[in-house]
């Protein structure tokens, strides 16, 4: 089996892999080996942390990878990388992290969705949910995703990444986001 997956990368705490910027850059290198290859990588962005107050800003990016791993195996690999980068436990929701890697989409597959109301309430299941249940609500994911995959459509909501961004309040392409690089790291 070979498929393409969209992976969100983020970090806002230093750890064994260095600064948040260094952790995201190393995670990209790790995504480019062991049965996976990076096809496209967004520029890096700095975003305000959401959730718990007082957190440092995040470094965010989105990568498109080709992989022969099924989604569940890919998720296990991403969780191992998070652990190697210093992440312990599952942290508090929306808390600070040494590294956070999420599968946003895997070849348009839909699994584990319990409806938009459950997603909005944060009551999603603990197993792998595809597409990621909060992709459509996160400017720090949608903006870099638009950079590398403007044609992407949310498999459940059936809206383009541009339509999802346009539906968010404010100006999500500029509010609380700052591009750190014009080209991929």
UniProtKB/TrEMBL annotation:
Pfam families the record matches: HPPK
CDD domains for the chain: HPPK (cd00483)
UniProt keywords, alphabetically: ATP-binding, Folate biosynthesis, Kinase, Nucleotide-binding, Transferase
Gene transcribed to yield this protein: folK
Family: Belongs to the HPPK family.
Functional summary from the UniProt entry: Catalyzes the transfer of pyrophosphate from adenosine triphosphate (ATP) to 6-hydroxymethyl-7,8-dihydropterin, an enzymatic step in folate biosynthesis pathway.
NCBIfam families, alphabetized: folK
A GO molecular function held by the record: 2-amino-4-hydroxy-6-hydroxymethyldihydropteridine diphosphokinase activity
InterPro entries documented for this protein: Hppk, Hppk_sf
Residues annotated as domain 7,8-dihydro-6-hydroxymethylpterin-pyrophosphokinase: 7-150
Pathway assigned in UniProt: Cofactor biosynthesis; tetrahydrofolate biosynthesis; 2-amino-4-hydroxy-6-hydroxymethyl-7,8-dihydropteridine diphosphate from 7,8-dihydroneopterin triphosphate: step 4/4
Annotated EC: 2.7.6.3
Protein name: 2-amino-4-hydroxy-6-hydroxymethyldihydropteridine pyrophosphokinase
């Amino acid at each position: 089996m070979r498929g393409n997956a969209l992976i969100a990368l983020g970090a806002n705490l230093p750890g064994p892999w260095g600064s948040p910027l260094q952790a995201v850059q190393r995670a990209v290198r790790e995504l480019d080996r062991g049965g996976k290859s990076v096809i496209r990588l967004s520029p890096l962005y700095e975003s305000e942390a959401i959730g718990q107050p007082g957190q440092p800003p995040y470094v965010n990016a989105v990568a498109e990878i080709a992989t022969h791993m099924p989604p569940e195996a890919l998720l296990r690999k991403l969780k191992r990388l998070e652990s190697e980068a210093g992440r312990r436990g599952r942290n508090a929701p929306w808390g600070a992290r040494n590294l956070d890697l999420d599968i946003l989409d895997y070849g348009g597959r839909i699994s584990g969705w319990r409806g938009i109301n459950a997603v909005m309430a944060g009551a999603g299941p603990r197993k792998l949910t595809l597409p990621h249940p909060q992709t459509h609500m996160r400017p720090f994911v949608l903006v870099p995703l638009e950079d590398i995959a403007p044609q992407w459509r949310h498999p459940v909501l059936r809206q383009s990444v541009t339509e999802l961004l346009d539906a968010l309040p404010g100006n999500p392409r500029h509010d609380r986001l700052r591009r750190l690089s014009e080209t991929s790291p």
